From TrEMBL:
Family: Belongs to the CDC6/cdc18 family.
Functional note: Involved in regulation of DNA replication.
Record domain AAA+ ATPase: where: 51-237
Domain Cdc6 C-terminal: start-end pairs: 318-403
GO molecular function: ATP binding; ATP hydrolysis activity
Entry keyword set: ATP-binding, DNA replication, Nucleotide-binding
Lineage, opening ranks: Archaea, Methanobacteriati, Methanobacteriota, Stenosarchaea group, Halobacteria
Amino-acid positions noted as binding ATP in the UniProt annotation, renumbered to this chain: V63, G64, K65, T66, A67, Y222, R234
Transmembrane segments: none
Any single biological process term in GO: DNA replication
Protein name, entry field: ORC1-type DNA replication protein
Organism: Halobaculum gomorrense
Highest taxon above the source species: Archaea
Length: 429
């Protein structure tokens, strides 16, 4: 008898799960010929040892901006290496460095030029970490330009999610001009900004826009047919043969077009999740029902993520409404939400906002679709007031999962809801 483990499934569909991860750079960028040609043209000066062009890439989430960038920079690096081998005495230095600005920004906020500069220094120093506090901004920029100047040749700096760099765009202004201003002497710097926020470009100051957007490359959404081709190529390498059919690939592609604006990431995630679902259920091949189950699971997780992405006050408010909801007390008035929120904020070691301060967050949560509000009118005596409940898109369990993910110490905080409502004057004593 072979070895058996409780972790083993009767069937195995996924051959190489690494190919589904975010770190994986695809062997080929499919269905992007026009865009790739523009991108190649923008990078040609680097290959030729001429001053680099700056570029701004934009398009919805999951349409291949990062994948195309990683792929082309690896190609460029390899081609310059082999060119250098062929032309001793005329070598061209080339380095690229990539930072995702979203990871540097707090939830709901933006990263400062200072934080981006520190992240770049750490990337360039490869392990030697500079702490994110304790330096004057000027010192950090000096470190960065010293580091860049030591490298020489051409350095391309890729700022992914560049829209998460805050108002002060010092770095976006200075980096492409560093050589002209005299911050560096030996190195030519090119900047590649990537964003899925269309308004970002128009909000840039004209000077920054003119340099960063020297070349603009738009990544359009994929069609269902294109997505099918992309995930089919991935499935051939990542899944075992005969474990999936065309119908399943088409369904993943169609759902990604319909619900996720043509995102290859979504199509890929649906396929992977459906494969895991089929493995757990013990059947081969993957069936359409596995894809629908995958969609449910992904939708559930997305909602949890978007709650966890909110700032702490908003999460506490959502938890307050969720607790009231779990107790059958919603729709509920602002006063009661505030009382529950205050208790939770204190338990989390946070200074609670006043009811007025909290109200701003509450209306925002309504606008964002997490909550649903009702206007109540009790005539002359009662006046007008709003009540709130979780929107149909959000469940109590999702809010709880999000709070657990944010590691707020609130799992075991008990709320005496009757008392809260009584204190808020909403329950007769
Ligand atoms: N044309 C393509 N060929 C092969 N794989 C692709 C293609 N486009 C996207 N992918 C894959 O889809 C996933 C998402 O792509 P990518 O990360 O490049 O999206 P993005 O546009 O950078 O999204 P975001 O703005 O959210 O960062 C990745 O796994 C990537 O490998």
């Amino acid at each position: 008898m072979g070895s058996s483990s409780i972790f083993e499934d009767d069937v195995e569909i996924i051959r190489n799960a690494d190919l589904f991860t975010e770190e994986h750079t695809p062997a080929e960028i499919l269905c992007r010929d026009d865009v790739m040609q523009d991108y190649v043209n923008a990078l040609k000066p680097v290959y030729k040892g001429r001053p680099p062009r700056n570029a701004f890439l934009y398009g919805d989430t999951g349409v291949g901006k990062t994948a195309a960038t990683k792929y082309l920079l690896q190609e460029l690096d390899a081609d310059i290496d082999s060119r250098n081998d062929d032309s001793p005495g005329d070598e061209r230095g080339f380095t690229y460095v990539r930072v995702n600005c979203q990871n540097l920004a707090p939830a709901d906020g933006t990263a400062s030029s200072y934080q981006v500069a520190i992240a770049l220094v750490n990337e360039l120093r490869d392990g030697e970490t500079v702490s994110s506090t304790g330096y004057a901004a000027r010192e950090v920029y000096e470190m960065l330009y010293d580091e860049l100047d030591d490298i020489g040749g051409t350095v391309l700096i890729v700022l992914d999610e560049v829209d998460r760099v805050g108002e002060s765009d010092t770095l976006l202004y200075d980096l492409p001009r560093a050589r002209d201003i005299g911050y560096v002497e030996n190195t030519r710097i090119g900047l590649i900004g990537i964003s899925n926020d269309y308004t970002f470009r128009s909000n840039l100051s004209p000077k920054v826009r003119d340099t960063l957007c020297e070349t603009e490359i738009k990544f359009p959404a994929y069609t269902a047919a294109e997505l099918e081709e992309i995930i089919e190529a991935r499935a051939e390498r990542a899944l075992h043969p005969d474990t999936y059919g065309k119908e399943v690939l088409s369904l993943c592609a169609a759902l990604a077009v319909r619900n996720s604006s043509g995102s290859a990431r979504r199509a890929m995630d649906l396929l992977k999740q459906a494969a895991e679902h089929a493995e757990n259920e013990g059947h081969v091949p993957i069936e359409p029902d596995d894809v629908y189950a995958a969609k449910e699971e992904l939708d559930y997780g997305d909602m949890v993520e978007s709650v966890a992405d909110q700032d702490q006050h908003k999460q506490l408010i959502l938890l307050a409404v969720a607790r009231l909801d779990a107790d059958g007390r919603t729709p509920v008035r602002t006063k009661a939400i505030h009382a529950a929120y205050r208790r939770l904020a204190q338990a989390a070691g946070d200074d609670p906002l006043s009811q007025r301060g909290m109200y701003n967050h509450l209306t925002r949560l309504d606008m964002l679709g997490f909550l649903h509000s009702y206007q109540n009118n009790e005539g002359l005596r009662g006046g007008q007031y709003n009540t709130y409940e979780l929107s149909e898109a959000l469940t109590v369990a999702q809010v709880r999962d999000a709070i657990a993910e944010s590691e707020l110490p609130l799992e075991d905080v008990s709320l005496d809801i009757d008392r809260i409502l009584r204190d808020a004057g909403l329950l007769e004593s």
